[in-house]
Amino acid sequence: MTDGISKLSRSAVEMNSSADKLKNSKAAADAAADKASSAAYTPANDEVILSKAAEAAMAAGDFDEAKVANIKQALAEGNYPLDERRIAESFVAIESMLGGK
Questions:
Q1: Interior angle at CA 91, CA 90 and CA 96, nearest 5
Q2: Is pTM beyond 0.85 here?
Q3: I need a labelling partner for 16 at 20 to 30 A (CA). Which of 34, 48, 60, 100 fits?
Q4: What is the DSSP-derived secondary structure letter of residue 80?
Q5: Which residues contact 71 (CB under 8 A, 6 or more apart)?
Q6: What pLDDT was estimated at residue 48?
Q7: Residues facing residue 9 across a β-bridge
Q8: C-alpha angle 42/47/49, rounded to 5°?
Q9: pLDDT tens-digit map of 84-98
Q10: How far apart are CA 82 and CA 74, in angstroms?
Q11: How far apart are CA 44 and CA 18, in angstroms?
């Protein structure tokens, strides 16, 4: 017997119905798996614990603060010698490392 609307036989309609049920059950299973995996990860549970050495290294500057202050002052006053050629050569070296020409 043929369906008057879709022009398909009854067996074809039943096969499509079975395929739709299978597709829907797979979609439901995928949705449940996504929900379970997202529930397992909660950013509130993440924690980083630093060692005392790491905390001390982060707290202390790894540079000479007095020297930096002196350089800043000399730059502000215009008394810090700058070698333009050396600066340009450094930029060329950086560009070549980054793949520039």
A1: 100
A2: no
A3: 34
A4: S
A5: 80
A6: 83
A7: 2
A8: 170
A9: 999 999 999 999 999
A10: 11
A11: 43
Q: Where are the alpha helices (DSSP H) in the chain?
A: 10-40, 52-59, 65-77, 84-97
| Alpha carbons 21 and 14: distance in angstroms, whole number | 11
Task: Quote the CA–CA distance of 94 and 92 in Å, as a whole number.
Answer: 5
Angle at 12 between CA 11 and CA 16, to 5 degrees: 115
Q: DSSP character for 5?
A: T
Q: Could you give the angle at the alpha carbon of 92 between the alpha carbons of 61 and 67, nearest 5°? A: 25
pLDDT in tens, 42-70: 567 778 888 988 888 777 777 888 999 99
As given in the structure block, the two tokens for residue 73 are 């002052």
